[in-house]
Design goal:
The protein is mostly beta strands and 423 residues long. The chain contains 2 helices and 40 strands. The chain is elongated, with a radius of gyration of 23 Å.
């Protein structure tokens, strides 16, 4: 549950922090910049002129929201546990938040990230960003972990609006109802290079959850792995209504960019439309020589690698529903995934309507997927399950299309089980 409404702005602690920061901002260490101008806000200990600006994150965030652009430099000279820090930005504001500094007087970053932990704190996200139009936060060289927002959104990071770009960071061991690692609503998330999102859990979207949001994940060295949505949808990634995910990152050798996640439906990725908006996934490899992949994910019910579900219907629109669509290409592959049915992909239509999801794979690979229970008991399920409704045979359905795609070494009762279109 977001706590932006309760961020303190006039408590004794914040007033004390304000006095310290105002003193520091007049020092030569911060180039004499006022709080309404661009500057570096250094977090750590000790606090004072020529030293650190704040000894806690919330103090720094409260000042970073004004003027700018600002850089919040989180040093390892203080401990950041029990965190629930919120940053609110108006339109056209930019803040960079970076770790990788041992002390406040260190001029250049090192390779050791700064850990920001929610352990021992309130049941809330570790970091919360409420960003106005054209505002951006750039987050790098941090570990965000141990958040627990079990009844809310975004155990590690909650982003509402704006742009968040993450580089050289780890988001791990967080819990939420939706978006265990990261939850994004009405904004854009860029997962840059060397970002690992792992061991997070949620009902839906164990690693990342999107609602009316866009995800771009095309840089090298980044992974979504070992996340769980045991009772829901999208172990690695949940692409919710009104959302679009563009993934072309190669992952690492032998490890797909979406790797070893688990869910009830959509062990790797679930794209779920609702009556108002569709859900869309594009996985087109940036480098065909190092293809993007949905690899080694498990589902306990349907869709080991990928689960797509369309919806019906728009208000007063008869049977005009919304689609869940996925396009894979340029070597992208679905490999080594398992589920009782739909080991590679399960396409679930809108109930009792001719509105089916669509999956197109061009120049890709479907390899070594298997239909089994989680206890490894074989089933008679399909590698691809296309539709559960006789209505999926008409023009409204999108169905499954494979072109120039290697399909080999899969193990199941059927290669394709279909009530819809297969081309």
């Amino acid at each position: 549950m977001s706590r932006f409404a309760s961020i303190p702005t006039s408590t004794t602690a914040v007033r004390r922090c304000a006095r310290r920061l105002l003193a520091a901002l007049t020092s030569a260490a911060l180039l004499g910049l006022a709080t309404t101008q661009a500057g570096i806000i250094k977090v750590g200990t000790p606090v004072g002129p020529g030293q650190c600006s704040c000894d806690n994150l919330q103090c720094a965030f409260d000042f970073a929201r004004y003027g700018g652009p600002h850089t919040v430099r989180i040093t390892r000279s203080a401990s950041y546990t029990g965190q629930n820090a919120g940053l609110t930005l108006d339109s056209n504001a930019t803040v960079t938040i970076e770790g990788g500094y041992a002390t406040c007087d260190q001029a250049e970053p090192d390779t050791t990230p700064t850990t920001i932990s929610g352990l021992g704190g309130s049941d809330d996200s570790v970091l919360e960003f409420a960003l106005g139009p054209s505002s951006a936060v750039y987050l790098r060289r941090v570990i965000v972990r141990d958040g627990d927002d079990g009844n809310g959104y975004g155990g590690g990071i909650q982003q509402i609006g704006g742009l968040l770009r993450i580089d050289d960071s780890t988001i791990s061991d967080n819990v939420a109802e939706v978006g265990g690692g990261i939850y994004v609503q009405d904004g854009n998330l860029e997962i840059g290079s060397n970002v690992v999102i792992r061991r997070n859990s949620a009902r839906d979207g164990g690693g990342v959850a999107l609602r009316r949001a866009d995800l771009f994940m095309n840089d090298a060295g980044s992974l979504i792995l070992l996340n769980q949505a045991e009772t829901g949808y999208g172990g690695g990634l949940w692409v919710g209504p009104g959302s679009h995910a563009e993934i072309g990152a190669p992952g690492l050798p032998g490890v797909g960019v979406i790797y070893a996640n688990r869910a009830a439906h959509g062990g790797g990725v679930a794209a779920i439309a609702d009556e108002d908006a569709g859900a869309f996934l594009d996985m087109i490899s940036v480098d065909p020589g190092k293809p993007a992949g949905i690899v080694a994910n498990l589902a306990s019910v349907r869709g080991g690698g990928l689960y797509l579900r369309s919806a019906c219907c728009l208000p007063n629109a008869g049977t005009q529903g919304t689609f869940a669509l996925a396009d894979l290409g340029a070597g992208a592959h679905i490999s080594d995934n398992g589920a009782p049915d739909g080991a590679a992909a399960y396409l679930d239509p809108a109930p009792s309507e001719d509105i089916g999801p669509g999956l197109t794979i061009v120049d890709g690979a479907i390899e070594r997927n298997f239909t089994r229970q989680l206890d490894n008991t074989p089933t008679n399920g399909a590698i691809f399950h296309v539709g559960d409704d006789p209505g999926m045979s008409g023009q409204g359905t999108r169905g499954l299309k494979l072109a120039h795609t290697h399909v080999q070494f899969n193990d199941g009762g059927h290669l394709v089980r279909s009530d819809g279109l297969v081309r």
